C-alpha cells in the first residue's frame, strides 16, 4: 500500500523547503506575522505534529470537515 498524503507531507516538514514554502505562502497571503520567524517556526512545528497524528494508520480523527486525516497535507 502506498503512503498516505499526510505521511508523504510529513517527510517534507524538517526540510528547508518547508520553511521556504511557508514563508512564501504567508507573504503571498499578506499574513500579518509573515516576517515573525518565531511564529513561522511554531507553525511548522504545529503542522508537523498534526501530520504525525494524521499519518497514524489507526487515526480516525477528521481535522477538517470532509477531509480524511490520511489526505491532510502541509498546506492544509
Short structural description:
The protein contains three helices and no strands. The chain has helices at residues 5-10, 16-28, 37-55. The longest helix is centred in the middle third of the chain and has 19 residues, at 37-55.
List keywords for this structure.
single chain; 76 residues; mainly alpha; 3 helices; 50% helix; 0% strand; elongated
- Please state the structural category: mainly alpha
Overall form: elongated
- Count of alpha/pi helices: 3
Q: Kindly state the number of beta strands.
A: 0
Provide the gyration radius in Å.
Answer: 13 Å
Give the DSSP E fraction (strand runs of 2 or more residues): under 5%
Low-confidence stretches: none
- Total number of distinct structural domains: 1
Question: Residue-averaged pLDDT, rounded?
Answer: 90
User: Helical residue percent?
Assistant: 40-55%
Oligomer: single chain
Overview of this structure, please?
The protein is mainly α and 76 residues long. Helices cover 50% and strands 0% of the residues. It contains three helices and no strands. It has helices at 5-10, 16-28, 37-55. The longest helix is centred in the middle third of the chain and has 19 residues, at 37-55. The mean pLDDT is 90.
Amino acid at each position: 500500500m502506498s503512503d498516505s498524503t499526510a505521511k508523504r507531507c510529513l517527510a517534507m516538514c524538517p526540510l528547508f523547503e518547508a520553511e521556504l514554502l511557508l514563508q512564501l505562502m504567508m507573504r503571498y497571503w499578506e499574513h500579518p506575522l509573515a516576517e515573525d520567524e518565531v511564529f513561522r517556526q511554531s507553525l511548522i512545528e504545529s503542522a508537523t505534529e498534526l501530520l504525525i497524528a494524521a499519518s497514524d494508520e489507526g487515526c480516525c480523527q477528521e481535522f477538517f470537515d470532509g477531509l480524511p486525516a490520511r489526505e491532510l497535507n502541509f498546506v492544509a
